[in-house]
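Notes from hallway chat w/ T.B., transcribed later so I don't forget. T.B. wanted the structure written out for a chain they're using in a teaching module, and asked if we could keep both sequence and structure tokens in one place. Agreed to drop them here.
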Amino acid sequence: MSRRDSRANAERILDAVQRLWAEDATPSMDQIAAEAGVGVATVYRHFPNRAALESAAFGRIFAEELLPLVEDTENEDADLLDVVARFVDVISRYTPVLGEVGVSQVTDEALTDLAEPFVELLRRGQTKGVLRRDLEPLDIYWLLRMVVLGLNSPVSSPSVRRRYLAMLLQALSPDVEQPLPPLTEQDYDRLNTPASRRRPPVAGDRAT
């Protein structure tokens, strides 16, 4: 088999995983192989175990669906509130499987990798006067984390997500007069150590 054919098989397998994940949290390797139109041995040749397959599939979801939402920070029309809503929509498509493989870890990794563009969107929104000035990069990380974990419950729905996301996003408006309660240095230390042990935006990198 040529390298091109081998890569094509790997892509078909990942395509199959993403299609099945939208329907079933735990498709068997046999189901994945059948959906991809390859033998089970071919699946294991590319991905020696389920963990390797899940990691590769999430890597592709990140690269193809999440990263494009926030990476174009030079686009002046990019808006943090819109990006947050679309980010949650993408994650919600994979709610069943996220519950099985550990939504907390997946969320931590995705948000950490996307920290810089989210910080840029935050600063741009503050400069334009559409986001409150006392928001910090750390706030955005943890707000997004709470949104993803809270709104991707199995009992959630598109209307539930829209309702509570709208409530949250209204709290980011500069029209809110009540200042945010301050965080202590101990809070910053704890919040800068998420469960995944990967660092979110650090407290010292505060938006101005």
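Follow-up for T.B.: The chain has two domains: 1-48, 50-208. Might be a good example for the class.
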